[in-house]
Fold this sequence. Notes:
By secondary structure, this protein is α+β, with helices and mostly antiparallel strands. The strands form two sheets. Strands 4-1-6-7 form a four-stranded antiparallel β-sheet, with no helix packed on it. A four-stranded antiparallel β-sheet has the order 3-2-5-8, with no helix packed on it. The protein folds into three domains: 6-62, no CATH class; 75-131; 162-241, Immunoglobulin-like (Sandwich). It is rod-shaped, with a radius of gyration of 48 Å. The termini are far apart. α3 (35-48) packs across α4. The chain is built from five helices and eight strands; from the N terminus they run αααααββββββββ. A hairpin with a 2-residue loop joins β6 and β7 (224-226).
Amino acid sequence: MRGVSLEEISLATRIAPRFLAALEKEEWEKLPGGVFNRGFIRSVAHYLGLDEDSMVAEYALHTKGRPEPGVVADPPDEPETQWRQIVVLVVFAVVVIAAGWAAIQYLVPRVTEYMHKRSSAISAARVDASAAPLPLNALPPNSDPAIVSAAPPVPSASAGNPAAAALALKLQATRATDISIVADGKTIFSGRLNPGDAKDFNATASIQISSSEASAVLLELNGKMVMLPGQPGAFTLTQKDLPPPPGASH
């Protein structure tokens, strides 16, 4: 009479359409029985705006004296749903494991290579530091620890060793400049230094420094700071420029 379909009632009351059809056709044996039937009737009557108590009473009058078989509802779909959930979880786990394996295969070689390069660079820096004639400060961040000076080592100083007065020059650039170093008449370095680059050179008699900007380099000769004129040019350091030995008169 109200033009409401069973599907609409089923959506509103959450009652299976087959139970609503059994109620409409008064096929009581197809209902669960007991309080379930009365609950169905009250829900439908409430949705349709009917008198709930009157509808329940009418149902009791129709079923008076009849046994309620208690039809069991359709088996739920939980097993199938559970299987679907299990399959989804298994697929997800496989995808995660595959992604992790791929990431390990991709990252491990690169991490190993990076650590190997870093270890090699640190070892080279330590070799440079141990081979230097004088204790040096830490290398600047933008310097290359793999560059090892080709200059010969400074002979060890002793009382009877005339080589004790050999020249050991430490050079560090404060600005970009072109530098040329000639030790004992032989060019041992010629190139461009960037800010922070540091190098060490050794000679026996003389070291000639040629710079496009002399004020852009800091010099330390056998532990003594050497000041150069600001204009570009060539400057020669000899044993006369060495600091006096400890205890010597000035």
